[in-house]
């Protein structure tokens, strides 16, 4: 396996995007959604980036890229159609020991970005190790059809149950049969169909408590 799968916590970390076109804008929006502090360097920028800058959501520098831009950043994404510039960004990042991704150029990256399906806190990723973005896109679309929003609700419910059980100071291993029973039940169908009575009956039978799914889900939001 060429790449080591990992999910990065970039909350509050400075991330640089070089390029202010459509691709760069999408990269910026994803970084912001993950809580990053985003700097953008580009001579030309989209209206969306300009609005983000005016709101103070990003630091926008409307100028040519300089090697010093990669200093003190956690990661950099090159999103330009200038191959020479992309090579410079990659080389500068390597020299500074900074994580670097160049859009659509896996050979210039020390990390690549997977296709993503997100359902709340559930994140499914697909990677073809840079060999076929088209196949990664198809697989992502397949997963989007297979995993609906009911998975996000189930994850909230499971998280709330786990948090409550851990607060009771039980050994985590003692909870495993409970979680297995719930996830292997028909709970996903019930969530999809809004059948909360069945879910609450399952919780009562499994947990021997008065916990109600509606309350637990709200607690976890």
Write the layout of secondary structure elements.
Layout: E1 14-20, H1 22-33, E2 37-45, H2 47-54, E3 58-61, E4 75-78, H3 83-95, E5 99-102, E6 115-119, E7 122-126, H4 133-146, H5 150-167, H6 172-183, H7 187-193, H8 196-207, H9 213-220
Parallel strand pairs: 1-2, 1-4, 2-3, 4-5
Antiparallel strand pairs: 6-7
Q: Assign a percent range to the helix content.
A: 40-55%
**CATH fold-level name of the largest domain:** Rossmann fold
Rounded mean pLDDT is 94
Number of domain units: 3
Largest sheet: 5 strands, parallel
Architecture per CATH nomenclature, i.e. the level-2 architecture of the largest domain? 3-Layer(aba) Sandwich
Broad CATH class of the largest domain: Alpha Beta
Strand sequence of the main sheet, in spatial order?
A: 3-2-1-4-5
Order of helices and strands: EHEHEEHEEEHHHHHH
Q: What is the fourth-level CATH superfamily of the largest domain?
A: NAD(P)-binding Rossmann-like Domain
Number of strands: 7
Gyration radius, rounded:
22 Å
Report the principal-axis shape: elongated
Please count the helical segments.
9
Give the termini distance in whole angstroms.
37 Å
Report the uncertain regions.
none
Proportion of strand residues: 15-25%
Tell me the structural class: alpha/beta
Q: How would you characterize the overall build of this protein?
A:
This protein has 221 residues and is of the alpha/beta class. It folds into 3 domains: 1-113, NAD(P)-binding Rossmann-like Domain (Rossmann fold, 3-Layer(aba) Sandwich); 114-147, Double Stranded RNA Binding Domain, CATH 3.30.160; 150-220. It has helices at residues 22-33, 47-54, 83-95, 133-146, 150-167, 172-183, 187-193, 196-207, 213-220; strands at 14-20, 37-45, 58-61, 75-78, 99-102, 115-119, 122-126. The strands form 2 sheets. The chain has a 5-stranded parallel beta sheet, with helices on both faces. It has a two-stranded antiparallel sheet with strand order 6-7. Helix 5 packs across helix 7 (187-193) and helix 5 crosses helix 9.
